[in-house]
Please model this.
Amino acid sequence: MNPLVSVAITKVAKVLNPGEGLLRWANSVGLEGKTLEQARGSGRSSGSSVHQVMEALAGRRAMPRKGELSAAARPYAVELYRWWTGNDVQAHSVEVEVASQVHRFHGRMDYARWCRAPGCHCFGEGVVLGDVKTGASSPFPEHLVQLTGYRVAWPESGYDPRHVCGTEVLCLPKGGEPAVAYPNTLPDAAFLHALALWRFVDAQRDGREMDDDEAALVSSFAGARSVLT
Model:
């Protein structure tokens, strides 16, 4: 691959909807009457604040005081807190770096929590991988592909336990609506097919030949339609 390049999971996920997420965001910003710079600043502030609250809930730092959170970030922070404490979430880790040497991709998910699902065959010793999406009432397809990539990389990333019971997108809607965790049921093949498409497009854009590993991955893309639709 080009040469030994590791691609970000978020880039792979976006290959399914190139530019569509940006259009959705721009449309919502316009409907709110905000300028581009106002929206960018608010989004960065909200995301940073939510991660600070998550790190505090996981015991990694002190809980931010109300005055340290922007007005835009407070509803998201409150709903994250309510979801986390209401479900008695026990963090395995937060801001989790993962990478696959086999398939050469990497990423950072928001959290891994201990599985507490009744009757799960892990008996409380597995983890659920999650990512938070502020301002989203439900996950977009690329969010599910992104979570699938994290799951594919987890066994290679050196974490204990190696067993993953599931993945979820934690949506924090606008307007202070309750947080909802959406389970992700996509198979690993969904991400690998998206990765194959990204590798093919990347090679075409750079005007280069694919190496044997890339060609083998891309050759499996014929089955992607049944997986992703």
Summary: Residues 66 and 74 are 8 Å apart (CA to CA). Residues 39-43, 224-229 have pLDDT under 50 and may be disordered. The first strand starts at residue 7 and ends at 8. Helices lie at 9-14, 20-31, 36-57, 74-86, 141-153, 188-206, 212-219, 224-228.
